[in-house]
Amino acid sequence: QMFIEYRICSDLNHIHHESGEVYRNPTEVQMSQIVLPCHANHCGELSVGQLLKWMDSTACLSAERHAGCSCITASVDDIHFEHTIGVGKVVNIIAKVNRAFTSSMEVGILVTCEDLYTDRQWKVCHAFATFVARRTEAGKVQLKQVIPRTQMEQMEYSLAAERRRMRLIHAEIITDLLSSSTAQLECQEYQDAVPAERTRVESVELVLPPHANHQVSTFGGQIMAWMENVATIAASRLCNAHPTLRSIDMFHFRGPSHIGDRLVLKAIVNNAFKHSMEVGVCAEAYQGGEPLRHINSAFMTFEVLDSDRKPCTLPRIRPEPVDGKRRFQEAIARKKIRLDRKYIISCKQTEVPLSVPWDPSNQMYLSYNNVSALKLMDNRNNWVLASEKNKVRLYTLEENHMLCFKVEMNVRVSAEQTFHLLSDLRRRKEWDRHYEECEVINQADEDDTIYRVATPSVTKGGKGKDFILLASRRKPCDSGDPYLIALRSVTLPTHPPTEEYTRGEVLCAGFTIWEESSSVTKITYYNQATPGVLPYISTDIAGLSSSFYSAFSACSQFLLANKDSLAALPPSAL
């Protein structure tokens, strides 16, 4: 999966050393709670607000275990709730630090539900939260690095850097998408539509010591719980029924809240779709006569379920003029963004078509998917050596009816120069005979380029293939990371398949480039072999030829011949 799902079975979190000792991640914190009636809503199900408090507390303790000082919640990524939890069930929460950056760290959270009578467990949700270490008397805290010990930890460590990149540009991307989308959206008038104003809710909470953590700051989870409460009331007013919270969009805490604050919470239904509605909710704080401070804003998606647990059709909303219409239009754009995030980032590879349509609104998520898929392949440890010739090694991996292969070699060229030379696919035909033509179609941004690549036929008189490829480049996040060039197929309406070529597809391919020393670089090429790619490599995998060696020997010669070339610039600079 593009977003790694933690295993419910705790055996994968713990490994046994030869000495017999059980390894446990030093940052791991577990919480188990039995759901009592006081934790439940009208349906006898655990209130999501209460669950958010438990999740935040567990994640905070994990972050503090790693940091060695107090920490505060900075942001939480999208959360999708797959199941509700009934009274009498046990909630198990596991949190651990996936990666630490300068003063912030990503904490992975897994929530499972346990039925004590049947001994069954199932996943409820997983989330990624960012915590920031608070300054101490000595000044700003410099966090120590996380050292991954298991394959799962290595995967999460690697993907955390990509998730962080997406978080940092998330707000900017959302703003751009909303500004470009809302101008094209019209508010349709529906008969019997419910006035949005009827769903408006405002509530105030006084922050008391039980609502604060050991640093006298209001628990992030407590604020989220209060926000969920007013959002649920707003959703109930639209449908005159009890709604179920299905997801919470990624959000950031804008500022802290403390004991003695008055927290003003406001919610309103922004838009209602056929089976779901978006509720916007914000939290502001004040003390005495001071102006309101913005603490947080969030967008929550609700459904109303019938007796068979199927979503009901919802009434339409009539927005207020000006601000209401803006929120109505933005909710439509956010729904599209939400679908991109959910189905491009977190879906299983077997559940999506190989080529996903590319457009500026899903660029960030396709790029994330592209790089994450390559990182996951790079972290596999069950590769089998199929062939080796003059220190060029071909490995294979068969898993879930998929065949992957990788080719590995060392070159005496700096990692950075190797990265720049291999990044521009237009130069690949200088060493790879399978690249007959290559042109840039779209320079999406500095790190992402879309190419059209044409390859010759593998059979005499047959058609050649062409590919529309998204190439995503990444420089190392820190000294322990490789350079990455990830490739995957996308579709563009401007470049449909043609009669002259058969359209091929690449699910996941690319290079990882590791700096072994200042002058020696390890290059690994990966490819998840789709039917369109397999004919080019099948004879090598079967051991009937070693054309892979000649291709990568030519690659090595190309890199050596250009190791001091100033022309090795990224495509965006050309």
Name a few traits of the molecule.
disordered N terminus; globular; 3 domains; Thiol Ester Dehydrase, Chain A; 574 residues; six-stranded antiparallel sheet; 27 strands; alpha+beta; Alpha-D-Glucose-1,6-Bisphosphate, Chain A, domain 4; lipid metabolism; single chain
Structural description of this entry:
It comes from Oreochromis niloticus. The chain has helices at residues 48-67, 151-181, 220-239, 323-345, 363-378, 415-423, 538-541, 547-561; strands spanning 14-16, 22-24, 29-34, 71-76, 79-80, 90-100, 104-115, 120-133, 194-195, 201-206, 244-248, 251-252, 262-272, 277-286, 293-303, 317-318, 356-357, 384-389, 392-399, 402-411, 437-443, 448-455, 464-474, 483-491, 501-503, 509-515, 521-529. The chain has 574 residues and is an alpha+beta fold. It has 3 domains: 24-160, Hotdog Thioesterase (Thiol Ester Dehydrase, Chain A, Roll), CATH 3.10.129.10; 191-348, Thiol Ester Dehydrase, Chain A (Roll); 350-560, START domain (Alpha-D-Glucose-1,6-Bisphosphate, Chain A, domain 4, 2-Layer Sandwich). Strands 17, 18, 19, 20, 21, 22, 23, 24, 25, 26 and 27 form an 11-stranded mixed β-sheet that branches. It has a 6-stranded antiparallel β-sheet with strand order 3-6-7-8-4-12. The protein has a 6-stranded antiparallel β-sheet with strand order 5-11-15-14-13-10. A hairpin with a 2-residue loop joins strand 18 (384-389) and strand 19.
